[in-house]
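Subject: Predicted fold for Ribosomal RNA small subunit methyltransferase D, 196 residues

User T.R. writes:
Posting the sequence so we have a shared reference for the thread.
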Amino acid sequence: MKKNRHSHAMGEVRIIAGLWRGRKLPVLNAEGLRPTTDRVKETLFNWLMMDIANARCLDCFAGSGSLGFEALSRQAQAVIFLEKFAPAANQLNKNLASLKSANGTVVQTDSLGYLAQPNPNAPFDLVFIDPPFHCGLVPQVIDLLAKNQWLADNALLYIETEKDHAPLTLPEGWQILKEKTAGQVVSRLVRINGAS
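User M.O. replies:
I've generated the structure tokens; pasting them so everyone works from the same file.
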């Protein structure tokens, strides 16, 4: 029997450190949903160790919510999770409820459409950009974030791409602080300098 393309069987992600250290959260096993591996996540949050507490975070392609939940566990002030796929967005809400966290907000939306509007909130200190691979979304997201006042001065962006992704073109004053390749995944930490 052919498996349904959007199989709703469950997987899980583990929170590595912080308030909910060791907690496992159920996630959908849906096509294109690719939780960041523990190894990559550990590297990222080591990079962010001094920057995560009290940060306002935006998780642009939340999926499993792995990065946003880890940020909340490590005392981020707030996380907005953007997720287009309704069952995944529903699961994010269930996981927030099970963690009893009032600091996470799930918006079921197309991320590009959402970012194309001027930012209605306070600007974000930290943005996670981990889109589906091979869709060419990263340059568009960077452009919209820069254009529509989504970023605080000196904001940090975590960008995860496939290894064979075209070289990133960053706006003037943006700088790659860290870069690491693990298997087929390239992780980058970028800082924007001053107002964008």
